[in-house]
Amino acid sequence: MTPAGQAKLKLNVPDPFSETSNDPWKTCDPLGMPRIVNNQIAQLAFAQMPGRIAILEYFARTWREVWMDGRQLPKNVGHKGGPSTMYLGYSVGHWEGDNTLVVDTVGMDERTWVDRRGHPHSVDARVIERYTRVDHNHLGLTETLDDPAYYTQPFVIAKTAYRWVRGQENPGIAPFSNEWLCLPSEAIEYMKIVGAPADEDAVTGVKKP
Length: 209
Fold this sequence. Notes:
Layout: H1 3-10, H2 35-38, E1 44-49, E2 52-57, E3 62-67, E4 90-96, E5 100-106, E6 126-135, E7 138-146, E8 155-163, H3 184-195, H4 200-204
Parallel strand pairs: 3-4
Antiparallel strand pairs: 1-2, 2-3, 4-5, 5-6, 6-7, 7-8
């Protein structure tokens, strides 16, 4: 990490059960990109439509639009004269061969984290995802971050594999069919009843920065 990246990392307290934590997860704020891809590897789905692909992210109950119509990524996002940043950024994609979808994303809101450990990213960060259909039942994923402001070189954030689960025609176990939402009001109440009384800061006697 660069000195700027290290300084930013020290400001992030990733434990959502700590009273002093500023983890977006703690208050049900959007995880955003690139964390939404690697925070909890669970169910994933793709919906193809004219000119774009929607990636359905199970954990946040949301979707991302990946434009496949040949357009270019916006320039100068988050800077004067450029478009505003967004939690999920701006994404374009293309196919490599017959079975690899490459997704290129920029313009991610700096309030989002790289991962659940609290690693930061700057407004100029770029994320490349590579989804490779190995065979009918297996999908490989590699997520890479390039952010010269906070890191000295690009690095792989996550590398994992998804496996097709049979029986998804049953609504009771089908992905995305069961309601699971992170509600800010419930998260606040949880911290009052469970999180704060069991605060690890108090238990360990170590206050986090």
